[in-house]
Amino acid sequence: MIENVIIFVLAALLGTEVLTKVPQTLHTPLMSGANAISGITLVGAVIAAGMSDAWWAQALGFGALVVATINVVGGFLVTDRMLRMFGRKRSASASDSSSS
User: Fold this and answer.
1) How far apart are CA 39 and CA 29, in angstroms?
2) Distance (Å, whole) CA 46 – CA 82
3) Which of 5, 52, 55, 90 is deepest in the core (most CB within 10 A)?
4) pLDDT in tens, 40-73
C-alpha cells in the first residue's frame, strides 16, 4: 500500500512539474489532444464497472465512467473551438448575398 502511495505522489509531482514548463501557446492543443486520447479511460471504467459483483466497485466504476466521458467530450469541444478560431471568417457582405 505504501508503495502505491509513493508512486501516486511522485506521479503527481512529476505531472505538475511537466505542466508548469509547457508554454502557454502549446497548453490548449496539448491538453485537448490528451483529453481525446483519454478515451481509453472509458474502456477501463466500463471494465471496472462490469467485472465486480461488489456494489461499491460498480459505483466507483460508474463514477469513473462519468468523469472520463466528461473529460473526452470536453477535449473534443476544446479542440473544435480551437480549430474554429483558425478557420476562415465569412464577410458580412458574402453572407448577406448568399441568403438573398
Assistant:
1) 16
2) 30
3) 52
4) 878 877 887 788 888 888 888 888 888 888 888 8
- Residue 79 included in any domain: yes
Distance of alpha carbon 21 from alpha carbon 13, whole angstroms: 13
Q: How far apart are the first and last CA of the chain?
A: 70
Amino acid in the structure at residue 68? A
Distance CA 40, CA 58 (A): 18
* Eight-class DSSP state of 19: H
**What are 9's three cell numbers?**
505522489
pTM of the model: 0.56
Asked if residue 97 is part of any domain, the answer here is no
Q: What angle do CA 47, 48, 50 make, to 5 degrees?
A: 65
What is the residue range of 52's domain? 29-86
For 62, residues 6+ apart whose C-beta sits below 8 A from its C-beta are: 45, 49
